[in-house]
């Protein structure tokens, strides 16, 4: 589908012009007697640990190794039952991801919000509608050659930014999703996603437009960074910057597709 520039801008709400949260502690006073035993959990899972407790390195390595062998069915089951961090205490459900499991495009946000926690799908509500419009602006559609996921699979209290330990607990899941999908391009939505996938602490503004890549062994996947749709709803002037990022992503994908066709 070839859209004119005006049509693309209209899709994103850019025509004529695109007109710190507190971090409360998570209540973790679950009774030891009420908690399920480790034997009752699926492979690759651990009991929720106290917030400041160090995780045994060997246990984390074993869990990551098990998750790295999962197929899609086992991965979804493990995410649904995960108790590797305290976020499990208040969630309604874990939110794995949605879309084409062999997609060329992978979009990664930070964590589910209240509506995502209720519905079990990432990017619903107003932020989801904006993301769908952003996809439409570059001739993409949710579920068609696009997979959408979050760095963290459970909702942080009050929709706060995920903490480093929470992102680390979900990291094996995200790594396995990337391996199973094998996308041609990853688009990171927001700073938390950048930190989770690339380990980058620099500001999102300083990373936009830079040549970045996700590395996993011999695999190297180009990465593009842009703003999270929820941020764009609060900061309308930056929608024009997001449009620039999407144009870069579309151009990069076209170049990679052309190169693949030429070499085949």
Average pLDDT confidence is 84
Biggest sheet, in brief? Answer: 6 strands, mixed
Number of strands: 6
The structural class is alpha/beta
Describe the protein in words.
By secondary structure, the chain is α/β, with parallel strands linked by helices. Helix content is about 40%, strand content about 10%. It contains 10 helices and 6 strands. It has helices spanning about 5-10, 55-65, 70-80, 115-120, 125-135, 165-180, 190-200, 205, 230-235, 240-264; strands at about 95-100, 105-110, 145-150, 185-190, 210-215, 220-225. A 6-stranded mixed beta sheet has the order 1-3-2-4-6-5. The longest helix has 25 residues, at about 240-264. The two termini are about 25 Å apart. The model is unreliable at about 15-40 and about 45-55 (pLDDT under 50).
What's the short story on this structure?
With 264 residues, the protein is of the alpha/beta class.
Task: Please tag this protein with its features.
264 residues, alpha/beta, Uracil-DNA Glycosylase, subunit E, 6-stranded mixed sheet
Topology:
Blueprint: H1 5-11, H2 57-67, H3 72-81, E1 97-99, E2 105-109, H4 114-119, H5 125-137, E3 146-150, H6 164-181, E4 185-189, H7 191-198, H8 204-207, E5 212-216, E6 219-226, H9 229-234, H10 239-263
Helix pairs in contact: 1-5
